[in-house]
Amino acid sequence: MRSYDLSPLFRSSVGFDRLSRLMDSALRLDDAQLAYPPYNIEQASEDAYRITMAVAGFTEAELTITAQENQLLVSGKPAKDEAPKTYLHRGIAGRAFERRFELADHIRVVGAELVNGLLHIDLKREVPEAMKPRTVAINGAAKAQPQIIENKAA
């Protein structure tokens, strides 16, 4: 396992401590945990993204999508079959799953749809007006006149 020293980054920046936690959690993940269900992450435009997950055999009622702060949680729990089935070959995994995605700041879940066994989750980056770059006026010496105080003798 590799270890990264991010202390030089912390000397000249503020607020990147979350990056360290994110990298630590990414290094702890197991490859087997990432195998089911398969998914794609695509960038639709500069500020729009789409996560597509292959969830064959799941209905909308069996899937749950939860967005909280900077995390997206997608989970699926198949309903119990009343009648037991005998399979000669079982290649479609219908087991319960839980998949977490770390979202960057200002990423919002716009919507989700289940089409032909694919769950599409649309995301959009929405930067608040207060966070967008703005021009700050510079007050020069010509605009600021010194205040003159007069002393009147009685």
Count of individual beta strands? 7
Class by helix and strand content? mainly beta
Largest sheet: 4 strands, antiparallel
* End-to-end distance: 86 Å
Oligomerization: single chain
Question: Largest sheet, order of strands side by side?
Answer: 1-2-7-6
Description:
- It is a single chain.
- The protein is mainly beta.
- The protein has helices at residues 7-11, 17-28; strands at 39-45, 48-54, 63-68, 71-76, 97-102, 107-115, 118-125.
- The strands form two sheets. It has a four-stranded antiparallel sheet, with no helix packed on it. Strands 3-4-5 form a three-stranded antiparallel sheet, with no helix packed on it.
- A hairpin with a 2-residue loop joins strand 3 (63-68) and strand 4 (71-76).
- The longest helix is centred in the first third of the chain and has 12 residues, at 17-28.
- It is elongated.
- The model has no long low-confidence stretch (mean pLDDT 81).
Summed up:
The protein has helices at residues 7-11, 17-28; strands at 39-45, 48-54, 63-68, 71-76, 97-102, 107-115, 118-125.
Question: Which features characterize this protein?
Answer:
154 residues; mainly beta; 4-stranded antiparallel β-sheet; 3-stranded antiparallel β-sheet; 32% strand; elongated
Please give the structural blueprint.
Layout: H1 7-11, H2 17-28, E1 39-45, E2 48-54, E3 63-68, E4 71-76, E5 97-102, E6 107-115, E7 118-125
Antiparallel strand pairs: 1-2, 2-7, 3-4, 4-5, 6-7
